[in-house]
């Protein structure tokens, strides 16, 4: 990031940013960052039932996270289908990427992938090949 003359704005000098539900400063910085950037979605690598997901969900439901509208941001989960099975209905959209994405034409793609790269794949998009 720095090599490309970018700048990281954070509550911490670390290049990899993490947020704990218990760290009010980090959580508020995340919320303000969502407000400032106006991103329509965020990728979540935390556990669906974990403290951070619950805190963001509570605040977002009240319109107190990011841009102040409970329907935004949408959530993209990097969790297994089994972990996402119990998600509650929310005013924002949720999508899971940590499970197989087998649509029409999958078998043709899988055969071509195996022939070209010599291995098997379980999903598209480069997330879980």
Q: Which oligomeric form is depicted?
A: single chain
| Radius of gyration over C-alpha positions, nearest whole angstrom | 18 Å
Task: Give the amount of beta strand, in percent.
Answer: 5-15%
The domain tally reads 2
SS class: alpha/beta
The percent of residues in helical segments reads 25-40%
> What distance lies between the first and last C-alpha atoms, to the nearest angstrom?
26 Å
Summarize the main sheet: 3 strands, parallel
How many helix segments?
4
Write the SSE topology:
Layout: H1 24-37, E1 41-44, H2 51-61, E2 74-77, H3 81-84, E3 94-96, H4 106-117
Parallel strand pairs: 1-2, 2-3
Describe it.
The protein is of the alpha/beta class. It has 2 domains: 1-98, no CATH class; 101-129, no CATH class. 32% of the residues lie in helices and 9% in strands. The chain is built from 4 helices and 3 strands; from the N terminus they run H-E-H-E-H-E-H. The chain has helices at 24-37, 51-61, 81-84, 106-117, and strands at 41-44, 74-77, 94-96. A 3-stranded parallel beta sheet has the order 1-2-3, with no helix packed on it. Helix 2 links the parallel strand 1 (41-44) and strand 2 (74-77). The longest helix is centred in the first third of the chain and has 14 residues, at 24-37. It is extended.
Give descriptors for this structure:
129 residues, alpha/beta, 2 domains, three-stranded parallel sheet, 3 strands, 9% strand, disordered C terminus
């Amino acid at each position: 990031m720095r090599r490309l003359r970018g700048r990281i704005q954070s509550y911490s000098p670390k290049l990899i940013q993490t947020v704990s539900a218990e760290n009010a400063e980090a959580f508020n910085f995340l919320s303000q960052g969502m407000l400032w950037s106006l991103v329509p979605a965020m990728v979540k690598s935390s556990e669906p039932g974990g403290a951070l997901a619950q805190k963001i969900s509570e605040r977002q439901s009240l319109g107190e996270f990011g841009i102040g509208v409970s329907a935004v941001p949408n959530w993209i989960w990097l969790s297994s289908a089994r972990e996402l099975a119990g998600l509650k209905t929310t005013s924002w959209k949720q999508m899971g990427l940590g499970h197989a994405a087998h649509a029409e034409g999958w078998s043709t793609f899988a055969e071509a992938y195996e022939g070209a790269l010599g291995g098997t794949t379980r999903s598209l998009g480069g997330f879980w090949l």
